[in-house]
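Technical annex B. To support the medicinal chemistry partners, we prepared a structural model of the target in complex with glycine, based solely on the information shown next.
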Amino acid sequence: MIDWNSYEKISDKEIKDAFAFSEQMVLKNLEQFTDRFPNAYSVDDFYAPIDNVDWTNGFWTGELWLCYEDVVSQGKTKEAERLRKAAEIQVQSFLKRIENHIEVDHHDMGFLYTPSCVAAYKLTGSETARKAAILAAEQLIKRYHPVGEFIQAWGPMDAKENYRLIIDCLLNLPLLYWATQETGDEKFRTIAEKHIHTAVANVIREDYSTWHTFFFDMKTGAPDHGATCQGYRDGSAWARGQAWGVYGMACAYRYTKREDYIEKFKKVTAYFLEHLPKDLVPYWDLEFGEGSTEPRDSSSALIAVCGMLEMSKYLDKEEAEYYRDIASKILKSVYEHYAVKDLNSSNGLVLHSTYSNHSPYNTCNHYGVDECNIWGDYFYLEALTRMSKDWEQYW
Ligand code: GLY
């Protein structure tokens, strides 16, 4: 059991220093990553450049926008201009990607288009970004199955082996709410709401651990069974899946305002927190606890931090303080023990993240293990941003 009173919160100075270092790193990386993007994961702590073809490209553009916000607030116009120009080049790339249907037959339209294009539109009013994000929302709802009432994650839509949702998708749904708000067309919100209800009803187990993926019967839509892809085994709790559940429940409450989701958020979060080791950064699956030699997933810690900070906006003072306090303590541990501190030792921001770790019981590929992962870097900057101001969020 963690004794939270024995941990310190991240200080304002540490937040400032973390931001200052991250901005130097991001600006340095622009030379390599403006027309191209960092890969989803580093190799020996260095990201290689890729084209705009993976589910993860939006996180890098999101990093540019988060740094842009910070340098604007400091009146650093030269840096702001560099970041904005690079991010705008990438927004063009996202428009091209959706218009030309490049690697968009999956559900990750939210991860791709929210931190890149919705962010761009909110910050600069870019019509290119708005157009791209609305096209992405249109693409996402094509994956909705009325039979079962969910958005299918991966693969061809008519295959039994793909008739499932995954917990990560909760973070793809804010794009749909935004699209309804922008266009006035209720179809996006209606589908998001149906998916949320189906996901919440099925991926959360009785003990408030979570399934990574959940299958439905193709003919009747009846819930069938849970299974893992990236977790250690079917019945374990994949750390990042649980973290997507924490942030996902905060978003679910933000958009639906269903009171029962507050309780679910608290329980899913409690499960995550109860399975943290002493340094507050989970192993890649919550099956593993203090003293394990398994790799960590620092990105899960950061996603959960952002989810707790989001949810604290809707809770009473005492409860909000509880989650902000814990979020701040986890963030301090990441800053102290996991964040990159030397501009030449890596081109990422946060070490010891795990993308996809093969086990004897799962079906996933093996890569990005104990490396930087681009969403870990993004959520580090989002957490720092959330700790430093009342953030007008992208999600
Ligand atoms: N959404 C995929 C992952 O978290 O690895």
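Notes passed to the chemistry partners:
DSSP finds twelve helices and nine strands in the chain.
The pocket of glycine is lined by residues 168, 230, 240, 355 (CB under 6 Å).
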